[in-house]
Amino acid sequence: MANPVIFHVDVNSAFLSWEAWEQKAADPDAPDLREIPSAVGGDRQQRHGIILAKSTPAKAYHIRTGEPIVKALEKCPTLTIVPPNFPAYVKHSRELISLLETYAPSVEQYSIDEAFCDMTGTRTLYGDPVAFAHRLKDEIRDTLGFTVNIGVSTNRLLAKMASDFEKPDRVHTLFPEEIREKMWPLPVEELLFVGKSTSRKLREMGIATIGQLAQTDQKILISHFKKHGEMIWKYANGIDVSDLMTKHAQPKGYGNSVTLSRDVTDSQEAKLTLLSLCEMVGARLRADEAKITVVCVQIRDCDFHQTSRQTQLFSPTNSTQRIYDTACTLFDELWDHAPIRLLGVTTSKVETPKDGFGEQLDLFDQEKAEKLRKLDCAIDAVRSKFGDDAIRRAVFMDAKTDRPFGKGGLNKAKFDDKRKRK
User: Fold this and answer.
1) Which residues carry out catalysis?
2) Which of 148, 257, 348, 358 has a CB 3.0–4.6 Å from the CB of 253, allowing a cystine?
């Protein structure tokens, strides 16, 4: 049996690279955003004014992804900032995946700008995997117009770690026998799923590198971090605990959030935004023929304090109304009347038909549930054929609330793309 070979393909500064491609396509004489201090940034008027991607020259000014545009301009007053164009990014992402699928027996898209390719058993077709990774990288650059890093290993964890080594336009390997030399000297923060809180606690324990983490007694880590401690110990030793690759991985949850254009202090206005979020979540669930049993509401106030609350449902559902009713109950329990900056609705514990789900209903609610099911199906069908704004709930007709559904954006673009594929 052939040894496993996994590629992790990661687009370099994806949004910035794709934006540069779009500008050069429209005007060949336009400056290349990749070669000047530049960034893709959100809409400051809508308070999404953060850096989404930056060029390599911008990194010299210590500009960071996720920081406010105002701070970025303080560091580099000549920084060129362009607004995001999410539909274009989805188009380029689809082109990348289509190219990868011409070579790899199995492709798993991990995010809009990265994917795993299971290349096991392809040596007789393409020769040495590392040499082929170089050819694939160059083909992506020459045919699609942007660069990628490709990490090569025997599992997804190590392949992803490898692709994060020196950038851009590089191929790196991280095979099990290379872990001690290439991965163990790295700061512990660079290990997958070691966030700020975990890394701070690890450093307080005297664990500063991935190698020190790997050589720590697993029982000590479990006592401090519980199951997460066991997972990061395995990752530090190159052991991938994730499931085997599947071409279309089932999401573990569905959610949407929106930063509001102004602080909201009215409960009814907040609940209209919740309804809009629940509409998108419910539609995505139904598009995937999935149901959920956990609903969570997230609130971030004007001082950036974030709170959340979740509850388990009596039975699985993908009904927009049931999700919304639950979200409103959670909101009422959670909100302390501080001005709201961000609202989010997430769902988890996903079930699909293969899991044999069935919605358990109250005897007297069966007729109502069937009407809601038919309503959801009718709305989905109309929006799929005529667009998201072809049909609206009456409560939105005169409302001035933020409506993520139908306003555009990454999640909507990805959802629209998925519907076109069906």
Assistant:
1) 114
2) 348
